[in-house]
């Protein structure tokens, strides 16, 4: 039995990049949600939460149409000389960012809300600029939330399947991630390979959830202490 | 209960029992390339026999795995001979026969793209070529045979995108996400859009598609009726119209 580990590395690369993009995009978004009094707040919060309830096929379907050569985003990326995104690793990153967005934004949003206005007001009286209040007060206090969001987004991306099956095209080394490789092995009756990869996923998921639980317990203890 | 009402109930029960005995439901697993033809055949079959059908479409490999693992199907229309033969060998099915012989086509949604298919493949003047997953879909395996026969399997490998089955492959090409792809001729036989090259049969082994009666059917008369119907003139006419050959 030969076990090709390329899908494992590809999946880790995808999850790492997706988490990094989500930290950069999701944190400011969560901050805005926690601070704004705009009437748009509930609309934006709902949009962010949508991937939680939508079937991945809905996301995959619209991504395929939007990012394809006849879609507005596809036309734009083609005009920019980037080609179209479906069937590319970059396309998977775009899909994964959307798919895992709520897993990053919601814990971070909750963490920002939990800080309350008081520490920020105190910082303001000490003449901290809005940016300094965000960077020096809010971010350090919300660190557990950021960590939770990052771990959840990473794990959720590793577990992604439907969206990738629809926009990936099953290209080895480019879009054939772990979940698709397992699916392929099962379909081809290569159950030994399927067992290695699937068993590894069970172990990985167990460790992630265990880590989250331990982390949560520790944070609560610090909170009480 | 008054007598007329009682006899009415009895009549209703009797009627229900007879319709149950006559009209059964047949659960069919169908290879994705045969989707369009099967829909037409199923409608005609239902009208002709009064039986009903419940059809699942997918790649032959996927359906085979599901059957091996106890999926509730009565009849399996595969896109190859290998999986039906395996099922017969394993004692899970019986009575295989070839219901259609499929052909492969290179197809593009762009009406101007394909003039000479082999030359176009040779030039490599495209970004993406869609095929069905060769591991699970016989039309994907046939597509790989064509590329190997043309000596292009290695040079074109970086441009290949694989659909989960031939239906997804068709979708990749139809949406323009892949400029061209190897699909089943049956998928485009009745649709003149785009441009196409019907691959010369010398480039790949004939795609003989076998049907089998699965053991799960038990004594379901609708299952055998469907297999009989598939060999009937009416069904064969539909099958030929979709670009398949028959024995």
TrEMBL record, chain A:
CDD domains: TM_PBP2 (cd06261)
Encoding gene, per UniProt annotation: modB
Keyword Transmembrane helix carried by entry: yes
Protein name per its UniProtKB record: Molybdenum transport system permease
PROSITE patterns xref list: ABC_TM1
Organism: Marichromatium bheemlicum
Annotated keywords: Cell inner membrane, Cell membrane, Membrane, Molybdenum, Transmembrane, Transmembrane helix, Transport
UniProt membrane topology term: Multi-pass membrane protein
Family the entry assigns: Belongs to the binding-protein-dependent transport system permease family. CysTW subfamily.
Superkingdom classification of source: Bacteria
Keyword Transmembrane helix (UniProt): yes
Transmembrane intervals: 12-33, 45-68, 80-101, 137-156, 194-215
UniProt domain ABC transmembrane type-1: residue ranges: 8-216
Free-text function comment from the UniProt entry: Part of the binding-protein-dependent transport system for molybdenum; probably responsible for the translocation of the substrate across the membrane.
Compartments where located: Cell inner membrane; Cell membrane
Coiled-coil residue windows: none
């Amino acid at each position: 039995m030969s076990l090709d580990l390329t899908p494992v590395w590809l999946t880790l690369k995808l999850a790492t990049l997706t988490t990094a993009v989500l930290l950069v995009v999701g944190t400011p978004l969560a901050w805005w949600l926690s601070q704004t009094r705009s009437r748009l707040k509930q609309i934006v919060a709902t949009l962010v939460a949508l991937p939680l309830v939508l079937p991945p096929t809905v996301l995959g379907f619209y991504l395929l149409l939007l990012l394809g050569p006849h879609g507005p985003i596809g036309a734009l990326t083609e005009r920019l000389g980037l080609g179209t995104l479906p069937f590319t690793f970059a396309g998977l990153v775009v899909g994964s960012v959307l798919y895992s967005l709520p897993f990053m934004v919601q814990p971070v949003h909750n963490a920002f809300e939990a800080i309350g206005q008081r520490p920020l007001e105190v910082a303001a009286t000490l003449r901290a600029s809005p940016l300094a209040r965000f960077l020096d007060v809010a971010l350090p206090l919300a660190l557990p939330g950021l960590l939770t969001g990052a771990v959840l987004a990473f794990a959720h991306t590793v577990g992604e399947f439907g969206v990738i099956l629809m926009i990936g095209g099953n290209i080895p080394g480019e879009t054939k991630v772990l979940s698709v490789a397992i699916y392929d092995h099962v379909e081809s009756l290569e159950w030994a390979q399927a067992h290695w990869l699937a068993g590894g996923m069970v172990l990985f998921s167990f460790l992630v959830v265990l880590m989250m639980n331990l982390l949560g317990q520790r944070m609560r203890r610090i909170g009480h202490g | 209960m008054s007598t007329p009402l009682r006899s009415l109930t009895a009549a209703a029960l009797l009627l229900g029992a007879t319709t149950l005995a006559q009209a059964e439901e047949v659960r069919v697993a169908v290879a994705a390339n045969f989707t369009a033809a099967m829909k037409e055949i199923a409608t005609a079959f239902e009208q002709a026999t009064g039986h009903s059908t419940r059809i699942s479409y997918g790649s032959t490999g996927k359906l085979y795995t599901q059957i091996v693992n106890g999926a509730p199907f009565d009849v399996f229309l595969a896109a190859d001979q290998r999986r039906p033969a395996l099922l017969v060998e394993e004692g899970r099915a019986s009575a295989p026969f070839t219901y259609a012989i499929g052909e492969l086509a290179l197809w593009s949604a762009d009406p101007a793209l394909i003039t000479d298919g082999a030359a176009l493949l040779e030039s490599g003047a495209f970004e993406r070529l869609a095929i069905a997953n060769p591991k699970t879909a016989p039309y994907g395996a046939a597509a790989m045979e064509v590329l190997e026969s043309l000596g292009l399997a290695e040079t074109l490998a970086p441009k290949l995108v694989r659909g989960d089955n031939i239906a997804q492959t068709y979708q990749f090409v139809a949406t323009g996400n892949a400029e061209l792809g190897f699909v089943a001729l049956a998928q485009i036989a009745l649709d003149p859009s785009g441009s196409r090259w019907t691959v010369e049969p010398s480039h790949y082994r004939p795609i003989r598609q076998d049907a089998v009666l699965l053991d799960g059917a038990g004594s379901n008369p609708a299952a055998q009726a469907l297999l009989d119907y598939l060999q009937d003139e009416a069904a064969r006419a539909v099958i030929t119209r979709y670009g398949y050959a028959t024995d």
